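Late entry, calcium ion complex.
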Amino acid sequence: MRLLLVEDDAMIGEAIRTGLKREGFAVDWVRDGEAAETALRSEPFDVLLLDLGLPRKSGLAVLTGLRARGDALPVIILTARDAVSDRVQGLDAGADDYLVKPFDLDELAARIRALLRRKSGRTAPAIEHLGVILDPAAHTVRREGHAVPLSPKEFALLQLLMERPGTILSRARIEERLYGWGQEVESNAIEVHIHGLRRKLGAEYILNVRGVGYRVRPA
Ligand code: CA
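Prediction complete; structure with ligand written out below:
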């Protein structure tokens, strides 16, 4: 899952990015409102983490613009301001959730998972498909009752495929979702991760639709 973090405070931004990467998210970080707009118009993200007090363009203006374009991207406001009116304004402008700094990274990660769950229409925290159960919070995958150890990228890729079992995802689309800017991606990286998943979950679990992309076997 790919996140855009908009935060002008270097220490806070670095802490959030490091913590969320450790949770398995791909995190792109920009430090002002205009850079955020550029990123939002050019790249696909799963969640936006948005500070309100930003140089060049306020977080509130970024959020208002996003919703005015009809973009339903889930947004969590991160703000040091504890004034109730700021939070109300943010929520009314289209934010889905907020956290007041300083906050716990575990709580931020849990709120991101909750938003992703709601976005995909799931009610249960774990994703289940054809005998495989993936738990985004615990970072575990079980197949017919047995734990399946996966690398962080294999885990992220499997989650992407299991979120929408009917959808075929192209290699380019998968790369966009698994890797942030400036991350070196080997040309065969996705194939290698798919191969790893097939070895661990069974060759039939993930289908290669020739010339189009990949998907999990339909139920
Ligand atoms: Ca700020």
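The chain is about 40% helix and 20% strand. Will revisit in the morning.
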